[in-house]
Amino acid sequence: MIPQFTLPSxxxxxxxxxSPNIQMAIDYADLVADMECEIATGYLDKLNISFxxxxxxxxxxxxxxxxxIAALLWVFYNTNEEPFFSTSYKCQCGETHHVECDWGxxxxxxxxxxxxxxxxxxxTDSIVYKVTPFYGWAxxxxxxxxxxxxxxxxxxxxxDIKVMRVLLQIEFKGADNxxxxxxxxxxxxxxxxxxxxxFKVLTEKVNEYNTLNPHGLNSIVSELGEVTxxxxxxDCANKExxxxxxxxxxxxxxxxxxxxLPKVN
Length: 265
Ligand SMILES: [Zn+2]
Known about the structure:
Layout: E1 5-6, E2 14-15, H1 22-27, H2 36-47, H3 65-79, E3 84-90, E4 96-102, H4 103-108, E5 121-122, E6 128-131, H5 136-147, H6 154-167, E7 170-172, H7 180-190, H8 196-212, E8 219-221, E9 227-230, E10 252-254
Antiparallel strand pairs: 1-2, 3-4, 5-6, 6-7, 8-9, 9-10
Helix pairs in contact: 2-5, 5-6
């Protein structure tokens, strides 16, 4: 039994997950590594007892990126007998330490927020907007854009991803914001409407919103929308150093959703 999960972005939203079965592990054995956000949506929806295929609002695509990471880890942690991982890192003391981390320790640093969008703000005479959280559907869209990255086109696509990373967190007044497809269309249209100076203001507002609304596990979202988790502080294991002499280290783990899917061992 997986204990009830509360969305980090909304303490009134409780999710009951069923346990992954063997068939799912078989289905996920042959995954496309670059489509993990989309795969995560399908996986979380399959396990979510209240997911209704006819109601998009029940999909994990409508949860925030942090909600989804926490949910994947929650299921993983509660269905694995040994939820540990080993890694090594170069410590400030100069040595390389080998450590074993418990996913439960990461889940303990979980923060509960109650996210709302911001008040309506006027950008220009004709543009009024709100900042919204970074949702799963937006994360999925950026993942699709990253799939197009090839060496020749890299600069243009990278710039486009950075722009969309901001615009997908904006709801423009007067536009159709009822579905995530229309939100994506609005963002694409605004690329031809906004000046660079206006875009800079929106970027600052979105970054400020994300800083002021931490929720879920300790993590950093890059300009390209990729998430890195931070472990709890790890103490230096060098016996020659006095306690407190070397600052504890928070390791950065590039989050790969596929690592937390069920596997047949
Ligand atoms: Zn050390």
